[in-house]
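ok so for the tutorial part 2 we go from a plain amino acid sequence to predicted structure tokens. step 1 is just haveing the sequence, like this:
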Amino acid sequence: MDSLVDFSSGQMRTVAVFYSNEPVANDSGGRDDNWVQVTSTRARLRQDRGKKTNEQGQIIFNKDFQLVCRFKRDITPDAKWKVKIDGEDYRIINFVLYNEIKRWFIFSLSKITR
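step 2 — the prediction. this is what the tokens look like for a chain of 114 residues:
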């Protein structure tokens, strides 16, 4: 059994809410972001490696996360979605359908800083 996705429901402690961007027209002829909730699901969120990188002379801590969750058959995730977890926004870097029968997805996320 692979411990990455075969775990008890007690490890699904996080509620992940997925949003799709459906831009709307604004008064200046442009378009504004309009984030619409697609679905929410229980998930497991873990921070990837706690490494530090040196970027432009500054030490930057890794802000990447891994999210494991399941979706219903009629929902297919999109890399353009964003995820909200405990009031924090995350950008989807990529995702993999790990188990097609059970619909397990593994997402790589990056925290959106404002």
